[in-house]
Amino acid sequence: MQKPSILIAIAISVLSAAMACAHTWHVEQDGSGDFLEIQDAIVAAAEGDTILVGPGHYVGQHEIPGATDHTATVAFDKPGLVLLGESVDTVRIGEDDTSANYHAIAGLGIASAAIGNVTVNGGSDGVVWEAGGLEVRHSRFENCVYGVVIYRGNGCDIFGCTFQDLERGVFAAQMSTQIFIGSCVFIGVDTGVDVQSTTSATVDSCTFSDGVLGIQYYYVDGTISDCEIYGRANHDYGRAIAIAASPDIAITDCVMDYTMNSAYAVLQVSNGASITGSGNVIRGDGQTSVLLSGENSCYDFINNEIYRARHFCLIAQAWGENTDDPPLHLDMTGNYWGTEDEALIAEWIDDHLDHPDHPNYRMVVDFVPYHGDPVRVESRSLSQVRGIFD
User: Fold this and answer.
1) Which of 70, 106, 170, 307 is 20 to 30 A from 290 in CA distance terms?
2) Could you tell me the residue ranges of all domains in the chain?
3) Helix, strand or coil for residue 290?
4) Tens of pLDDT along 257-280?
5) Are 145 and 164 in contact (CB under 8 A)?
6) Pairwise CA distance, residues 284 & 302, whole Å
7) Has this prediction a pTM greater than 0.70?
8) Alpha carbon of 135 to those of 164, 246, 300, 306: distances in Å?
9) Would the pLDDT of 176 be above 50?
10) Cα 189 from chain centroid?
11) How far are the Cα atoms of 61, 266, 317, 358 from residue 229, in angstroms, in the given order?
């Protein structure tokens, strides 16, 4: 799934309203362009202009308008600009500096901008964007602490980007809206996507490998679809997907494979979150593949493959002060549990029936009827996915 791009929207606006006023600026370090530095082109450009950046490693620190004591190599000062590098392999932006007040690219209160075909290097944030719209396409992020950081963003798309060896790939928070992350690759990123206090978030067709936490949604409504998430080998912590306090999350056609480490759970749903979904494959080698804790709801969570981890397929917990009250019932029918043996499935589900007097186990999992055979089309193997990154 691919949303209409800001780049296209800007182009339509410029062509229809002020085509004659739009200008293309060239930045070339060999002196053949209009400017030697990107920031000089940003200052000279007008809304709707395009800045084409030639080969080179662009450094320098400039004051970010509206951010005292913060600097960036590229500091946007007006909306509607398009910044395009020659290619991700030839254009590099940012210094080898990860101090808290330095960012490779920044925009505060900028209504819209598009960035593409660059490698973003260094910074506490590779790109930080606040209170506006942003599109980042076909770019690479490395040597940063966080890749893309969005605060109060409105209509932000990150598409076709690669994030490698970072603490966080994409972080969005503070009442952002319409966040789309599509066809991105996260390699060795501790937390791939972390979205908090955001409406309408989408993560689609992304691949995560050698990470600790793949995707985290906290106070979010949105979707996660067609993703493949593989954990960090020999690691004893992490989750493929963690959902908390999020009222409406759809998870579909994802592979969550943490069989290479001993993370406690692969999919965790907690603090009153509700999920729907189908076509998912969930495997782990820790305590359980799925952990439901708190008064959660899984409705229409069917046609999934949920395999037994070291001990369980599913642990279902809900708190209740009065153990005389009837337990909650959770509908998990229509799934495949790695076997057609009903007694084994019951053994691999840890719920109120196993702890009838425990105040933390006030949930019964209803799993019958269930599938006796796998229900999802076979996905790429882990070795095939790893081959993509070799």
Assistant:
1) 170
2) 233-383
3) strand
4) 999 888 899 999 998 898 999 999
5) no
6) 19
7) yes
8) 19, 25, 33, 36
9) yes
10) 11
11) 36, 10, 25, 34
